[in-house]
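pls read this stuff:
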Amino acid sequence: MSSRLSCVEALRLRAVLEDCSHQLAVLGNVMPQRSRSCSQADEDHTMDHMDKIQRDREFAVGVIDSLLAELKEQQTVQCLLEAVEAEHRRKAHVQQVISREEEAERKIATLQKELQDVRRETQRELQRRQELVAELERRLLEMNEKTSAEKSYIHSSTQQQIHQTQKLNSHNEKSLEDQIKRLHLQMEEAQRVHQKTDRFLKEKLKVREEQLEERKERYRTRLEEKESELQAMTSSRTSTRSALQERARKV
């Protein structure tokens, strides 16, 4: 809470404030005049400046009126301190808003630049593709013209070849039929030989399998005999070792 002023201090301060209030009232009656010699931009700038002065004047008038009332009733200047603090908060808030707007403007400028870069790159890519399409269309046209000429040549050449082939076929048809008959006979003979060979190989395989089975049986028999011999030898060696150990203990 603000400290209380003396009566003399309060009266002096009220006199000063009333004089300021009177001067501000006079200033409020002075209206800006439009200048015919100035450009529209200069005139707009002047009017913006005058609007700011008018807002500041109204703020000062409001603070002075409140302060005069407080001095008259309580001989304090608390409303002045509150007004100054509120103005500081307002200016801080405005500065934050301005900072955010400036940051947003910077981001917008960056995005606009990126957009321009993308547009330029897209335009270059579109131009490149258009040139590629034009080149492919040119090649396609050349290929179509070449193909058309080749088709015409091939058609003429094919007709001649067909005529010649028909003449040649009429000569060779009988020979080919004879060759086909001989090939059929050879294929039938080869089929018979193949079947005979297949039966022979199957019989041979069966004999070999039986022989292999007999060998396996003989091998199992010999293996069992060897295992029996080995077991007998092992038992004999064990008995001999036991006898020698018994004799050594007796000696």
